[in-house]
Amino acid sequence: MPQTDNLQATMDDLSAQGIHSILTQFCDLHGVAKGKLVPLDDLKEWVENGAGFAGPSIRGTGLGRFGARSEYYGRVQLESLRALPWMPGVAHAVCDGYAGGSPLATCSRQLLKHQIERLKARG
Fold first, then answer.
1. What is the DSSP string of 55-67?
2. Ramachandran area for residue 50 (φ above 0: left; ψ -120 to 50: alpha; else beta)
3. Burial, 26: exposed, middle or buried (Cβ in 10 Å; 0-12, 13-18, 19+)?
4. First-residue to last-residue Cα distance in the chain
5. Are 101 and 118 in contact (CB under 8 A)?
6. In sequence order, what are the residues at sequence separation of 6 or more whose Cβ sits closer than 8 angstroms to the Cβ of residue 84?
7. Calpha distance 72→36 (Å, rounded)
8. pTM for this prediction
9. CA 68 to chain centre
10. pLDDT digits (tens, 9 = 90+) for 1-24
11. Helix (H) or strand (E) holding 113
């Protein structure tokens, strides 16, 4: 979890740039970009819990229609936030996939992180 000071500094910096919205985005297992615009004012929520998406509608996640693991949450990676010069007032954020409060094994970024750890272990 990012420190509150770092989070607030990031929000202040983005606000000073005229940013009011964040394009939260991830890629599904087929390489298709998914995302939505969320307000900058709720950045803490997007970092800690994530922006919610209907899990069953995202191909390859294996998420069911009901229950705690039916929602896909894209948690904003604070270090990825960048203003989009072609979309004034909007910053882009890369998201990691979570469901039920845990990293989602079928999230492309979670899979990548897992493979990187396996490679590190091999030296």
1. GGGSTTS---SSS
2. left
3. buried
4. 27
5. no
6. 23, 90, 91, 92
7. 13
8. 0.79
9. 18
10. 444 568 889 999 999 999 999 999
11. helix 108-122
